Amino acid sequence: MKRQIRYYFDLLTTLTKKEIKVRYRNSILGYLWSIANPLAFAFVFYIAFKVVMKINLENYTIFLISGLFPWQWFSNSVNASSGIFLGNANLIKKVNFPISTLPLTTLLNDAFHFLVSIPVIALFVILYKIPIKLSWIYGIPILMLIQILFTYGIALAISSINLFFRDMERLVIIFTTLLFYFTPIFYPETMIPQKYQSLIKLNPLACLMINWRMLFLKGDFNSEYLFLGFFYALISLLIGYLIFRRLSIRFAEVL
């Protein structure tokens, strides 16, 4: 058992390092690309809602950034998941290894880029004279673990289904786009009408994003949303694993 865990850990480490090297190969700006997209979105939403529509929300720039960075991590991992097994077909055919690590490798690659973007969030927090709380030390790992479990379950299911239903890739893009607007990222959950407030709890991403924002802005959690986020993460992981296990016996037919 100990050797298997060690092998699994070494495999994940090696594949993740490879993904990071490939991502930055021949890239002059490198790290800047990992923060450019959410910062660009933050700029657009700031102009639209703060300047034009004049939304009455304090520290709106930090509000946007603290939601857009973790969202980008989720969105990038889910959108990339549909082509993971197809894109690594030659590796799967030639090497005997747990192929369930491939979606996790992509996810950890995006998690790494989210992690190195946290100093940017911290910089904006300092510029807006918001105190950085010690709760970041344990809060960031907790929320990252929940997001990894939740996203891995989705990625495992999508990457498996896409081998048999190639339209899955397009459906995933539509799904993530709709989910972005249904999740309180560029608007606060308090703007949702009272009669629809209960629907927030049915959106796993809302539970995560609200807690990310609370952590960065206030150094606190919403305990109910934290519990719901962990619950949804376990459900996602279980369903994703069951779908992968059910379909994996037929992978050789389509790869």
Structural account:
This protein has 255 residues and is mainly α. The chain has one domain. It has twelve helices and no strands. The two termini are 30 Å apart. The relative contact order is 0.13. The model has no long low-confidence stretch (mean pLDDT 86).
Q: Which labels suit this protein?
A:
single chain, 255 residues, mainly alpha, 12 helices
Provide a brief overview of the structure.
This protein is mostly helical and about 260 residues long. The protein has helices spanning about 1-25, 30-50, 60-80, 85, 90-95, 100-115, 120-125, 135-160, 170-180, 205-220, 225-250, 250-255.
Mean pLDDT comes to: 86
* N-to-C series of helices and strands: HHHHHHHHHHHH
If helices are DSSP runs of H or I spanning 4 or more residues, what is the number of helices? 12
What global shape is seen?
globular
What percentage of amino acids are in beta strands? under 5%
Radius of gyration: 19 Å
Helix % is over 70%
Number of self-contained structural domains: 1
| Sheet having the most strands | none
Low-confidence stretches: none
Q: Separation of termini?
A: 30 Å
